[in-house]
Amino acid sequence: MEKAKRGGRTFSEWKAWCAVRLLEIRAKYSGDEKVARDVEVLLTKLQYLRLEALPSFLLLLHAASVDAADFLELIPLSSEVEKWFERGGEG
Question: Does residue 42 lie in a domain region?
Answer without folding.
Answer: yes
